[in-house]
Request: fold
Amino acid sequence: MALKRNVGLRGISYRGGGPMLSWSLHRIGGLAMVLFVGLHIAAGFFMQQFGSNWATVLNTIYESVYFQLLIVFIVYFHGLNGFRIIILDIWPKLLEYQREATWLQWLIFIPLYALTAAIMVMFTLQGG
Amino acid sequence: MRSRTAPQIGFNFDYLMFVFTRISGLTLFLLAFIGVAAAFYLGARTQMDVGALARWTFFPNPNHVTNTNIPDVTQGWANAWWQIMEMVILFFGVTHGMNGLRMVLEDYLGGSWGRVLLRGVVFLLWLFVLIIGIYVILAS
Reply:
């Protein structure tokens, strides 16, 4: 009987919803930033002191607009989500509205990121 | 992975790092606002892309901002005030990040001895990044 059960795609998806998505993005983005900042500091050190080839290559990648679009997304999201967590930690009564807070956070994040990304893409297209 | 319980309030490592994460997060916001305001004040208003503005904001080092359109970056940036600001932002940023790395690692890995080992490795990594970062600040 159990083998005949049709679960479809719902079976493999985790239905944690918006808060789960925020948690994952916060965590993955945080680790990505540790990697980025750590490697960037190391690359800066080795470029400044020894003129290393790998450091120059790494910093060239970091200067490209595609990488910067990604890192701006991560930084904005991590910052806004962290700010929401701090506010809810200071006033635990607000935890009742954490789903609404998550929606509000996306409502702030989307225009902010869209504006920044538009400026970045415009600069790139102008060759500036 | 077990769900993480809230740390016991008191003078213990977990609670201190819990508080530090919040405070350093807010501090990084404050430092970023100061950095953006100063970057605009010192001439980032025109001919500057977002990447360059971010470099001025978070790490206003003469080596770091050379490929911008401002001809003389040593004017206004290469002084003790900005060196100290760079060190403060470096300390809060790296410590916040490394503590986050420790928390994520401890969520998935390590028994009682593994945890000691992991904390040792993350501590050495933290010290290494902090030292080379300060070296870059002082040597440029």
User: Anything to note?
Assistant: The CA atoms of residues 4 and 80 of chain A lie 45 Å apart.
